[in-house]
Amino acid sequence: MNDPDAQSSPASDAGAAPAMPLRLLLRFTDTAYEQRFVKHYIAFYFRYVQASLVLGVVLILGDYLVDHIAYGSVESNLLRLTLAFPVLLAGLGYTLLPDARRHWQPVMSGFIITAAFFLFYTLTRIDAEGGEGLRSWVGVLNFTFLQFYCFVILGVQFRYALASGLIILLAFEYTLWQHAGLTTREAAYWSYHVLTLFILAAGIGWWREYLLRKEFVARAALDDSRAAAEQRALRLAHYDEVTGLPNRRLFAELAMPVIERARRGGTGCTVLHLEIDRLSGIHHVYGRGEGDAALADITQRIRLCIRSGDLPAVGQAGENTRVVARLGDNAFSIMLTDLDSQERASLVAQRLLVAVAQPVLVDAQPLVLSASIGIALFPGDARDFTGLMRCAEQAARAAAEAGGAQHMFFDEALNARARDRVLLETELRQAIRVGQLCLYYQPKVDVRDGRIVGAEALVRWQHPRRGLIPPGNFIPMAEESGLIVPLTDWVLHAACGSLRRWADAGLPSLPLSVNLPASSLSDARLLDQLDALMQRYELRPSCLMLELTETMLMRDVTSAISVLERLRAQGYGLALDDFGTGYSSLNYLKRLPVSELKIDRAFVIDVARGGRDGALAAAVITLGKELGLQVVAEGVETQEQSEFLSVRGCVLQQGYLHSRPVALGEFEAMLRAKAA
Ligand code: C2E
Ligand code: CA
Ligand code: CA
């Protein structure tokens, strides 16, 4: 299991349909394969061998008795028994040895040849003493029998049968012509019979072996493909396909005994849970393949980093184990047994963070990723594996929520926060129903004359106990839990309701921006839902501006574009929110039918200092203008920022400098004042 790929066997590519004789022969030039072949048939042939040897003993005994009855006491007749008998019995004894099967073909041909020579000797002696040895058909039959014996007993590997058969044949010919005192006619007569029978026996032996081998190739291919499938199933069940790391299951199998040992030994161990930040963005934008390649790269670094050259195999966790596993799309877990102090765990985490932060090549471009690491210590944080994992995962989530690119230790407060989250979800469900949500409005201002040219509707949660909760604290949770759907329905209704109110009150009509969640683009109802709202509140689509982020569009560019085009055709405004924080390339940007770009606050923050972001912000403004889009800067907080942006042509701005998001009443007052 150490190397999941090291299992290929010579027959795995044999294919089920063998095999011209030559190709068949070539298969068996591999000694390992040949051994496998012999081993496969030996169990069957061994019984056969033993039976044949017993038959040999019986036949020799029979020959002795026949000769004894026919010719009386020819002295050498007894030699038959004293010489050949022990040899055959020794052969039989050999087959009972535990190790016999490994060498039985050469050893057995040795026994047969020896038996044959003893038989020559006996028969020539019988002839010399005036009996009927080689002169009788019974004597000659003995040899023919021995030759069949070779091909039957040594049938698995033809070459042994052929070699021993030939030796016996040559010796027999020699005896016929030299010693037996036969006439030439007799010798030629027996030669002819023995030779033709030899050819017959060899032919049968060869043909049978050919069939055996052919059958074996097919059977071995089947066995191999079954073994490979089992191996693969085992691998899939225990290893992650992309990185080759143990998966959650194997990780648990490896880690549980480690924790058990730590418990008994009174020592400690540590679990680090590492999540790559924003990896799903890469998957969405560049596709699975590129994302996986980046992941494999990072995996390599993580492994190097914790200096665990060899990953332990199933059931082999050693004393000092460092196990890396991939648990999910972007999540890794690392178990360290030789590490039980916060300081040292912290050092390892630092090292990991640095390793992950080295640029990776994605689609031939260097990208910098970051990770959030949660650390849990045994026995301090939890009593068992499951608890330890949960703690580490919670700590990692906290690290991610705190902005990522950092590590955090588990503590009780985190646990409390996790429980809180579950509670919050239940409460939010309730809140949407009973109307605890409200919209705040942040004006979008044209800095040239201070006019309000639009507004963004931002949701808030008026919680009865916790007070006003900002969207950052519940939108992500709503997205995860699916509550985002009813929440968005509510927001759209409220926004349209406000637009209607303003129109009725005779306030200037402005486009109102609404943030749409990622899921809404794949929601088939969206267009109908919006149209229904327009009818119900008697509004024109142009007064609604839908804000979408780059990352959510990039998930599935083609289908996003088709949805956007339909929205655009209906007359809705479309804005690309948080522009600059995603990974979209210019190619895509050109194809997106949006009308507005919102430069992310991150670029605006130190714009006035003329640093890199200043240059970037300026470039983005130019880009947006070139594409014919309306460019809006977000999060403008200072006069300096505002001026820098407007000098570069970005006069539409949104931010605390102009106004914070305000409640409905206050916003209406602002509108009225501007209108006056
Ligand atoms: P966003 O769409 O980028 O919204 C702008 C956020 O920046 C708002 O935060 C706004 O209050 C804040 N902001 C505006 N000007 C400034 C400034 O000058 N300085 C600073 N530091 N911040 C400024 P808010 O309201 O907390 O919303 C946060 C995020 O929550 C929004 O980011 C948006 O992504 C999401 N969100 C808000 N309302 C909704 C909603 O109704 N539906 C959905 N799906 N998401 C929403
Ligand atoms: Ca927005
Ligand atoms: Ca934004």
Any low-confidence stretches, pLDDT <50, length ≥5?
Answer: 1-19, 308-318
CATH architecture of the largest domain: Alpha-Beta Barrel
CATH class of the largest domain: Alpha Beta
Helix content: 55-70%
The count of strands amounts to 16
Q: Which topology of the largest domain does CATH recognise?
A: TIM Barrel
List keywords for this structure.
676 residues, Alpha-Beta Plaits, 3 domains, disordered N terminus, binds ligand C2E, binds calcium ion, transmembrane helix, cyclic-guanylate-specific phosphodiesterase activity, membrane
Tell me about this structure.
The structure is a single chain. Helix 5 packs antiparallel against helix 6. The protein folds into 3 domains: 225 residues, no CATH class; 163 residues, 2-Layer Sandwich (Alpha-Beta Plaits), CATH 3.30.70; 253 residues, EAL domain (TIM Barrel), CATH 3.20.20.450. It is an alpha/beta fold and 676 residues long. Strands 8-9-11-12-13-14-15-16 form an 8-stranded mixed barrel, surrounded by 5 helices. It starts with 20 loop residues before the first helix and ends with a helix. Strand 2 and strand 3 form a beta hairpin. Helix content is 58%, strand content 13%. One calcium ion binds next to strand 13.
